[in-house]
Amino acid sequence: MTTLWKWFMASLRASWFLWTMIIVNGLGSIYGFIWYAYQLESTSPAFLRLFVPDSPTASTLFTLVLIALLAGRSIPSLEAFAAVLNFKYGVWAVAVIIAGAALGDELNWQHYMLMFSHGGMALESLLYARFYTLKMGHIFWVAAWTLLNDLLDYTLDIHPWLADELEPYDQIVGFATFGLSLFSLWLIYTLVQYHRRFAR
């Protein structure tokens, strides 16, 4: 197991592995924007649409981080936004699906597919933390964006659509999302500092 884990971690920056991740994340991002098409069309004024497709935006940013790694480049501001948002919305999607199911929403294959893909989003953000070069200043700007996004999502009701069973609790979901944002910011920064000091 230790040998397999070492091989896997060493593969994270291998070109074949990065290409695989780029393709998977890229296709997932395209699917995500298609998934949000109707909600985007029904959101007005138009400038608010920037805040609607949370998960595909996050996975698109992470795809760009992977492309930069493949090119041997490091873009700390992009890393900060991609890592925090990809982790946050990965966890968020899994959590709201499980919460909806606990309240009686009947799960189908799409729910399981979304839990698997979003769980992967969160996991990859953590796995690649050893390669991030972001600093506290970059985290500050991500915090400003993601907390503004949370505010708009749950005051203007432009958050990703929830299961019918979960809709009566959307304000509770909003507070939980705010807490998840803070945790995501802390976790990504803490992991980067750990790898910078001890793991390299």
UniProtKB/TrEMBL annotation:
The keyword ATP-binding does not apply. Keywords: Membrane, Transmembrane, Transmembrane helix. Pfam families: DUF1405. The chain crosses the membrane at residues 16-38, 50-71, 83-103, 136-152, 172-192. It comes from the Bacteria. This is DUF1405 domain-containing protein.
